[in-house]
Amino acid sequence: MTFTADDRTAITELISMHGHLCDSGELDRLDEVFTPDVVYDVSEFGQEPLLGVAACAAAGRALGELNPVGHHVTNIVLSEIADDRVQARSKGIGVNADGTAGSVTYEDTVLRTPQGWRIGHRKIHPHRKPLGRQA
Predict the structure, then answer these.
(1) What is the CATH number of domain 5-129?
(2) SUPFAM superfamilies from the xrefs (predicted)?
(3) Please, are residues 91 and 70 in contact by the beta-carbon 8 Å criterion?
């Protein structure tokens, strides 16, 4: 199946929806963004990858007041890697309640499912130093 402009629009909106759902506390709707068996890799934050959409929602609830008040995504770049499979790379900015902010890169594998496009794997790379230097 051909990767179309409509697919690009749908995937871009999918990636953007993650922040809207998190910031509004609608964690029970994360299945609109992720596959049921999503791997959400937060290992660069010193934690084990989250396995499944329920684990992602539980992690968000467990963070409670430590969650950012705003998840913002930008610079979305999409590359078709196979039929019904797209690699997405985007920048994330998290704004905290105290006004501080952080920057990450999201690396997503997005899959076409019967329910529409969904993220099946997300790896988060935090940025702690300029020019791509590692912490």
Answers:
(1) 3.10.450.50
(2) NTF2-like
(3) no
Evaluate whether 82 touches 2 at the Cβ level (below 8 Å): no
Backbone angles phi, psi at 25, to 5 degrees: 75, 15
Determine the 3-state secondary structure of 3 from DSSP: coil
**What single-letter amino acid sits at 68?**
P
Domain ranges of the chain: 5-129
Digitized pLDDT (tens) for each residue of the chain, 135 residues in all: 678 999 999 999 999 999 999 999 999 999 999 999 999 999 999 999 999 999 999 999 999 999 999 999 999 999 988 889 999 999 999 999 999 999 999 999 999 999 999 999 999 999 988 887 765
**Report field, pTM of the whole predicted structure over 0.70:** yes
* DSSP code of residue 48: P
Assess contact for 89 and 105: CB atoms under 8 A. Answer: yes
Nearest to 8 by CA among 98, 110, 94: 110
